[in-house]
Each structure stands twice: as structure tokens, then as C-alpha cells.
Amino acid sequence: MVISYEKYKKIHEELALCRAELSSAKEELSESKLLLTEAESTLEAIRMGSVDALVVGDQVYTLKGVDYFYRVLLETMGAGAVVFIAEGTITYCNKSIADLLGTSVEKLIGSSIYDYVRDIYTEKFEALVQKGYSGTARGEVSMSFPLHSRDIPVYLSISQIQVDSSAAICMIVTDLTEHKSSKEHIASERLTRAVLEQAGESIVVCNNTGEIVRANASVYQLCGCNILYQYFDHVFHIKVTSTEENVEFSIAQILAGKTIIGVEAVLERTDRQIRYLLLHASQLKGETSEALGCVVTMTDISEHKHAEESIRLRNAQLDAVLASIADGLIVYDAHGRAVRENEKIRELFGYSLIEYDRDIGCIKNRIINMKTITNDGIPLDPEKSAIIRALRGETVSGFIESVQRADGSRTWLSMSVAPIRKKDRNIDGAVANVADITLIKKLQLELENRTKELEATFSSIADGVVIYGMDERIILINEQANKILGNERQELKRTMAERGEKFLSIFNAEGRALKPEEYPIYKSLHQGLSITGIELQIRYKDNTFVSVNSSSAPIVTKDGRQIGAVTTFSDISKLKQVESELRANVQRYNTLFNARSNGISHCRIITDEKCNPIDFITLQINYAYEEIIGVRKEDVEGKSIKEVFPGIEKFSFDYIGNFGKIALQGGELFFEVYFEPTKQWLSIFVCQSTYGEFTTLFTDITERKNAEEALKVRNAELNATIFSIAEGIIIYNMEGKIINLNKKAEEILGYSEETREKPMFDRITKYLKVEKEDGQLYPYDEIPVIRALQKREIVTGAEVCLRYSETERLIIDFSAAPIFTKEGIQIGAVATLADITDRKKAEKDLRRSEARFKQLTQTLEQRVNERTAQINVTNEELETLAYSMSHDLYNPIRGISANNGFAMEKCKERHCSLDELRYIERSRDNITKMEYMLDTMQYLLALLRKTMGRDNINLSLAAKRIMEKLKKEDNIRKGDVVIQPDVFTFADKEYVTEVLNGLLSNAWKYTGDKDRYYIEFGKKQIDGTDVYYVKDNGIGFKQEYADKIFQPYYRLQGHSSVREGYGIGLTIVLAIVKKHQGTVWAESEEGKGATFYFTFGGQESAVDMSRKAA
User: Fold this and answer.
1) Alpha carbon of 45 to those of 49, 74, 149: distances in Å?
2) CATH architecture of the domain formed by 464-572
3) CA pair distance 1059, 966, nearest whole angstrom
């Protein structure tokens, strides 16, 4: 404990005056040394017990032990002095302390020091007492004694001594108010120092140079070496650890007049050991106030420091324990006031009980103020509270009370309180564990309500329910169970065996009688088993019985303790009646499920938070499902349909929505759908199996659908064929009913809708007469259609006459044939009616003009042959003439070109004008153009005269060779050429190569201005047709010129000055493509390149070739 210098400045000034009186002893110093040596020897002799008596003044004290020496010192002191043992019992004191405490020495001895000072000690006083237990402590505190109405400052010196060979505490109390400047205070100070020296305090006296001239024995133990006549600073390496400001320690400062009282410091010994010290130091002065040296008192508080650290650690651990305890924890003092609590207490009460008790004074007031009530709801008597009972020595466990919190709410608490006893078994307080049971109380109330609800529920349950205790006796039974078991109320107290033997017998499903230990409820009670769905027969003494389905289970508390068992009974007598039918249904279902013709799946729907179906899980499928869909059972069962068939929610049919509607709303659905993942037609029937689940049954109808589709196509083709045939067509079924007929047949027969429905015999005999050419009736069974239907004959070319009236009849060519299925079953007949009335008439005319016709035909053929020969000769002459003219024009053009050259040279020699030279140059350019045009004309004539062949051609390879040739001619240019591999066509190889050369050369030419050219060749499908293209990033052209560029000699404006050619290349391309029955067109945007597309006719072989290459 550090005492500040400022606080006690006045006290130390008075002490300095007192010490001045010591200067008178200067001349007696040598004698004092001898006396001191003698005193030390005397003290040692007293300690050793070799001194029998001691004379003090006129009194003679007989020394029976070392303790009497301390008593003599205490009697002669002016300050209050008291000696007490660790429990607080006073063993000796002087009159001064008795006067301070307002009592007598006789009353003090044997009483407890805490009876006088406990209610008014301060924290500093308690700390000093604690330090005194382990060594020596000093300090100034303010205390209130019964004789004083105000606090007075006192100076305490506390140390541990030996009394009757036992440890005791000696406390010197100096009243600083009245005795600061008195000689008694000086004597008290000297005596106190003497007592502290005996307790082990180290004292060092230095002269004015800082040399140690005196030290007691404790000093040698403290520093561990001989220090006499050595300089203090050389021996003691002391560092002040006090937290007070401006507190320093050095011998030079002390010699200069500085005083230090109660300063904590650290001493480092020569052997590197560390000692914690409490320093007191002051200057020694003579009578004339001259400096004589200084005195340094050092108290070794190392053990106290270690103890302090242990206490701090223990307190920290205690705080941590308090904080970690889930329940509230309170420590009370002997008066029932809270002195320590954890955070849980503040949460339970809404405030700190320590602060609350400080305000109200005692536990009784708190009980009243908090409106504390007992578990029975009545106000709690404070004398019966758990805290008061614990302070009286009783240990209280599980005391339930309810207190009102700071916010007005009420909390139920369970308190366990135990007294805290000192070593002498006296009660020093109590500790209470407080648990919040508010929730438990609510649960108890809820349990009572639930119990009532359970009883009501028991009465309303249709099944029998019985609850048994661990002793096999019925605790609770509902009316239905009572009817089934046949118990009377007085029999509920009997055990199972007693009740069973007297009233009923229990058999299993096989008819074997069960012993009580075989009952399901017995196993649940004694073995802890849960048994469900056991079929039993309960037979009564009158031989009647009832079949029940029984389940039983143990009743276990949350802590795992079994407290009974419950069993239920369901009367299944009626169910047993339908069991056989159910088994038959199950057998039929299994037969259906295992059949390989129909796929079956059982599924559970998955919904979102709004109960909208979003998916479903396949629970079970049969073998037919695997075979039809082509999946494995392990890849489907237990998985969602979105996992098995990703994207199913986007299929044309809403499977999830429709199936979810059936599963959630019930009903059934039958439909046929095309299943995209497997490309199958399925016929699906779906129905609800239970809420949220559905079953689907489906068959593969792909073949049927294909057949139906083929049939539709065939019917459409047949109808189209029938109605497109000029002859009349009629289709009959086996009853002779007209199934179908075309327009021509309607015109020939002239039947109305009503007549068509009549039997065949009536139609032929009544509504329309069938005659021979000579006018006789045609026999009914000889009519071609009757022969085809009845005799399965095929009749062709039968000529019959249909008589409409006396004057109107038609001659028809009547043919008929039976219609058979693949299995050879006749299903009808078909008849054809050709109106040959005009033909028959024409035949007569034809026969008359046949000779004339033959003659005309021969004459016409002769003329056609002559005309054809003339045309061929003319064409050959025209081609020869055109070729000859183009060839013959070369000579005059070359002559003109030569003369133009001579003219140019002459003009240059004669220095003709620029205009004259330009005329000659223009003439030369036109000559060149004519030569090119003549070459083109010859090429086109040769092209058109050439016989075209067709082969499978690899266009990719041809395009690659053309581009390699173009790049070799100009290898400086940079760019990319992309050619789609394995592009084939079926055409003339020479012509196709010319087309590619023309288009690729154009692309190469018109990308010349680009930093990097891009040329692409490939093929794409447009409306099912193979379309080839050449694409470039050249200069392009406006789309409005897309048709003109294929015209002969047409060139785009603005390009002739920088590009070679005369506009005939694309004309050649067009001619070749048309010769192949194809088309060619261009798409372009000026400045962004162009794309040329072309096709060829007759691509079948090319397609096959492309597939092989792929």
C-alpha cells in the first residue's frame, strides 16, 4: 500500500521536529552503540527465554515467555495496540485501544476485533489486515469509533508475531489527530519500529555520505550479503514500482531531506533474485537541524505480493466461474446483504441486488419490497425465506418463490442456499444458486391443460387407447378400449396376467395363445420395445372374439427415463372380411405391374410454397417401363423427373402441370402424346393413387401412330388419286355399301345421298338398270362388282350399259376387284367406271378415218424430219458463221492495231498535240477491248457447243488449288482464306472449275485495297437446297446493282480504272450455272464486301458424297 507524500506532509514535518531531539544524543553516540549492542543481546536473550524478569520504571515484570515482552511494550505505548489471532479473537490490548473503542481492556480481551470494527472498516483497512497476515503492513486510514461522531485519521502498523508459540496479529493504532506532535507519538513510533524489527523488518542507517553504518539482522537476510560500511547505492539496486506520481527513491534525495513513506519497490539482489519491498526513508537531523544521515526501513513483501497475485488470480477465476454458470449465483454476508453476484442475477431481477441491498439495508425489506410469494401464491414470510434459514445454519434446496422484477413482471425462481462457515464454524454468510423456472411454471400450467385435453382426446379417439404404469396397471383408458378389453372400472388396478386370465385370452394371427410376457404392451413396458401393427385376436369367456391391430410403445421422459407404456387397439374385424378381396386385387395389380406390355410408374408430386406443382419424383417403375423408355430402374427411381429428363418443363405437353393436377385434385386422365426424349408416341393413363401421388400406365403406340400416319397419308394419296382419275372410282365394303367414290363416279351413277344408303340389289335393279350393249338386262350375279364381292374375282374391261331413261344411257367400261388385308381377309371391293360412250362413238368415226389419219401421219413425219434437218443445218451454219466471223475479224483488228501503232510513232516524231495522242490511245483501248470481246465470244460459243457431263467433284479441293495459284502470283498480300472441307457437287468438272475460278478471282481482285483480305468458300442449306457461296471483305457494291453485274460487259461505275477485265466473267458464271439448271445471285453492301451464292441441279450424288466424307 502506497501513502502519498502530499497527504502526510504535515505529519512528516512534525516527525522531523521529533527527530531533532535525537541530535542531543550525538555526544552519546558511542555510548548508544554499546547500549544498542547490549539491547540486541538482551532482546535475543528474551527471545531465547533466558531472561526471567524485566524492570520498567518502578514495575518488575516476570517473563514467562517471549509473549510477555510484547505485552510490556504494548502497555508502555501511547498508541492503541491490540493483539488478535487469525479468527479475530483479541488476546491482548492496551488501555489506549480500549479508550478508542469506548470500552475496557477486560471486555476487549476474548472478544472479536470484528465486533468493533467490521461494520465500519474500509477496503484499505481490510487490505492492510490481509497484508499483515503474511508480513508487515502500514497505512493511514479513516475510521469511525463509538466514542467519535466523525471519522478520525489513524495510522495503522500491522504485523505478524508469535504469541504462546502461535501466530498472531499485532496492530498499532495511532490517532493522528491528537498525537501527531506529542512525545508519546515519538515513543510509539520508536516502539512500533522495535516491534516491526522483531517481526522481520529490515532497517538500514546511513551517514551523510550514503555509507551504511548500521543494519539489523533482517537486512542480511534480505540482501544475502554483508553490507556494513558499504555505500547504499552499491549494495541495494532498488527500483520504485509505485503508481503515485513524482515518487522516486535515491539515497542522495533522502540525505537531501526527502521523506518516503510506504513506497513499493523492487530489489534486485546480487544473485539475481527479485524481492518486493515496502520502503520508508527519512533524513536524520541533530538538535541544530544539521543532517546526520538517513534511515531506510525495508519490509520484504514478496510473499504478500505473490499472495496478492494468487488472490487476484483466484478472484479472476471466481469471476469467470460466476460468469460461466448458467444459473444465478449470489454471495451474502452474515447480515443477509448481497456482496457478490453474477450477470444472470441482474438479468433475473432486472437490477443489481448488491446495489439494491445497499439502499434498503436488509434481506427482509427486499422480500417485502419485491412482493415475494410462495409456490402456493401467498406472500412469503421473511423469517421463512431460504436466505434467513441458511444464515441460521440450514441448507435449503429447491425453494420456490416468485419475485416482482424492476419492470413489474413476475419471475419464478428455484433457490438452493447453503451457509458459509468460518474455520471456527461460525456462519460468515451464505451462497445461493438461483434458477429461473418461469418457463417450467408455464409448462406445468400447460401440462395441466394438456392433461385435460388428453383426457378429452382419449374420449374422442375411435381406436382403443390404454396407458399403463410400470407396475402393469392401467393409468388411463378410453371408452373404446374399455369395450374391446371388456374391463370393469374395479379391474383397472389388476395386473395384465390377473385381468387376462379372468376375462379374456389373447391369440396371435396364427391362432396361438399368448402368455402375458408375450403381449406387445408387456414388451414395451419391460423391454422398452416399440411394436407396431401386430394382429391379435381377443377371445372372451363366451367364446366370442374380435380381431384387432395393436401397437405399443414405451413412454420415455426427456432424460431417457421410462415411466410407462401406451397401447392402441383398432378393431379390424371388418377389414379382415375384405382382406381376401384385397389380396386378389394386389395379385391382379402385381400381374399388371409385372406385365411387359404396359409401362407403370408410381410418382410423388413436388410443389412450391404456393402448392403449385414444380416437379415429381419417380418412386417405382416396372420392367416394361425400362424396356419401353430405354432407361434403367436405378437411374429413375428416387430421382426427380427433371434429373431424368432435363428440360421436360419445356416440352410441348405439360407433364408436371397435368400430373400435379391429378395428384392434388384427384380424377384421371387419358391422352396420347409424342415423348420428345425418346422420340416415341405413348398412350398414357394417369390417376391419383393417394393425395400428392399418382400412377401412370402407358404403352408404346409409335408403330400404331406411324401406321395411322401412313394410313392418313395413304388415304390422302388415295383420295387425291381417286379424285384426280378421270374414270369413276367406287369402293365398297363387304355389305356392298359405298365407302368412297370420286366425282366422276357420282356423275356416272347419279345416286342421291339417300340412294347410296340402299342395299346394293335395290340400287342396281330399281334405281339404275344395268344392260348389255344389245339392250338385255345384265345378270345380277354377273355384274363385275358382285363377282368381286361374292366370288373374289377380278373383272376387267367389262362393257355394260347404264340405263337412266328410255332415251338416255351410257356405255361404260366396268372393272372390279376384291380388296384383301395382308392376312388375306377380304374387306371389300373396288370398281372403276369409264364412260366410253363417246369413245365407242369415236371408235366408229376413228375406224372410218383411220386410213386417212395414217396417210396424214406419214406425211407429217416426213415434213418434221425435213424441217428438223433444215434447222440443224441452219444452226451449224450460224455457229460456223459466228465462229468464222469472230475469227476473221481478228485480221482486220490486228491490222488496225498495227496501223494505230505506226500512227502513234509518227505523232510522237512529229510532236503532235496531246489531244491527238489521246485519240490514238482511245482507239488502241477500243481495239484491245474488241479483241477481248471476240475471245469471249469464241469462248462462249465453244462453251455452249460442248456436251456437258456430270461427275462427283470435291469443290473444297478445287477452291484450294485456285487460291494457292492466286497467292503465288501475288505473295506479298496478307490475309485469311477459309475453305469448308469436303464440299461435293454433282456437275461438269470443267464448268464448275471455271465458276470457282471466276468467283474466287473476283474476290481476290476486289480485296486488293485491304490491309488483310478475307476470302471464304463453303456450303449451307437454304430451304433444303445445297447452296454454295464465295464471301470476301472487298470493296462491295450497292445491292441495287446485284442483277446488272451478271449482264455481259457490265462493270460497276468507279471501278474500271483500277480493276482489270471487261465485265464478262460473271456472265460466264451465269451461263454455266444455268446450263446446270441452277441459280446464282449476289448480296453486298458498299465498302463491306460481297457474297456470291450459286446452286446446281441434280445434287443427289453430291449429297451422298458429302455424307460419306463426313
Assistant:
1) 6, 19, 46
2) 2-Layer Sandwich (3.30)
3) 16
Q: pLDDT digit string (tens) for 359-416?
A: 666 677 777 777 888 877 788 888 888 888 888 889 988 888 888 887 778 888 888 8
Alpha helices in 239-392 (DSSP H): 251-255, 302-324, 343-349, 353-360, 363-369, 386-391
Domain 582-700 listed as CATH 3.40.1350.10:
no
pLDDT of 225 reads 76
Q: What per-residue confidence (pLDDT) applies to 979? A: 95
Q: Give me the pLDDT at residue 69, please.
A: 44
647: left (phi over 0), alpha (psi -120 to 50) or beta: left
CATH superfamily of 325-442: PAS domain (3.30.450.20)
Q: What is the DSSP track for 573-620?
A: HHHHHHHHHHHHHHHHHHHHHH-SSSEEEEEEEEE-TTS-EEEEEEEE
CATH class, domain 947-1109, is alpha beta
Same fold, 52-199 and 947-1109: no
Q: What percent of the chain has pLDDT over 90?
A: 11
Distant-in-sequence, close-in-space partners of 601: CB < 8 Å, separation ≥ 6:
618, 619, 620, 621, 622, 625, 636, 695, 696
The residues facing 812 across adjacent strands are: 800, 835
592, 594, 595, 601 alpha-carbon torsion, rounded to 10° = 70
The Cα–Cα gap between 628 and 617 comes to 19
pTM (predicted TM-score): 0.29
> What would the 3-class secondary structure string for 682-710 be?
EEEEEEEEECCEEEEEEEECHHHHHHHHH
Residues in the chain: 1110
**Residue of 185 and 817 predicted with greater confidence:** 817
Query: Distance between alpha carbon 1047 and the CA centroid of its chain, in Å?
Result: 70
Domain segments of the chain: what residues?
A: 52-199, 325-442, 464-572, 582-700, 722-835, 947-1109
Q: At what angle do helices 29-48 and 66-76 cross, to 10 degrees?
A: 130
The cell for 974 is 496478307
Q: For residues 618 and 325, what is the distance between their CA atoms, to the nearest angstrom?
A: 53
State whether the Cα torsion 938-944-946-952 is positive or negative. positive
Side chain identity, residue 773: E
Residue type, 270: T
**Least trusted range by pLDDT, from 271-275, 447-451, 650-654:** 447-451
Name which residue leads in pLDDT, 254 or 891: 254
> Which CATH number applies to 722-835?
3.30.450.20
* Digit-coded pLDDT (tens) for 180-218: 444 444 444 454 454 445 445 788 888 888 888 878 777
Q: What percent of the chain has pLDDT over 70?
A: 77
Cα–Cα distance, 553 to 528 (Å, whole number): 7
